[in-house]
Amino acid sequence: MDVVVIEPRKGRHCAECRQGPLTMHIREFNAPLCLVCADLAHLAYLPRGSAALTRRAREASSLSAVVVRFNRRRRRYERQGLLVEEAALARAESACLADAEARARRRERDAARRAGEDVRFTAELTAEILRLFPRCPPARAQDIATHSAARGSGRVGRTAAGRSLRQAR
Ligand SMILES: [Zn+2]
């Protein structure tokens, strides 16, 4: 089970070393104990927010503590973050960073593939415009096709191309 660390709303002093006011403490025998006296001072704080980072840091850390704060309106303790070993946090961060890099690379590949599709779409559309409107100058047909490919292929693009074409005649 996780150790629970409390972020007190009011300053508390450690029951053992009298240090304070404390920003975080645990409760032992119903008295506040500072993180130094609780042997938790070496842990690093990870605020909540990234589920993946939190899960990885917790898995990598042999000791972790949940940090909670009392919400008076809701009358319950709410999780604020996690205390984990520094090395575990560093490992979790680099794992998440590697994931983010992989995602970015995939997005880049997708964008490159879409750009390739746009080029093909533009060429096909240019040919189609020239077939339907033989008197349209090829450069103009190319412009229209490029414009509509840039706005995204599909019906909207084709409709826009048709509109431009009508305006051009
Ligand atoms: Zn203390």
Describe it:
With 169 residues, the chain is an alpha+beta fold. The protein folds into 2 domains: 3-93, no CATH class; 101-168, no CATH class. Helix content is 50%, strand content 21%. It is built from 4 helices and 6 strands. It has helices spanning 51-60, 86-132, 138-150, 155-168; strands at residues 3-6, 25-28, 31-34, 43-47, 64-71, 76-85. The protein has a 4-stranded mixed sheet. A hairpin with a 4-residue loop joins strand 5 (64-71) and strand 6 (76-85). Helix 3 runs antiparallel to helix 4. The radius of gyration is 30 Å and the shape is rod-shaped. The N and C termini lie far apart (76 Å). Residues 153-157 have low confidence and may be disordered. Zinc ion binds next to strand 3. This is DUF2293 domain-containing protein.
Structural descriptors:
DUF2293 domain-containing protein; four-stranded mixed beta sheet; alpha+beta; 2 domains; 50% helix; 169 residues; binds zinc ion; 4 helices
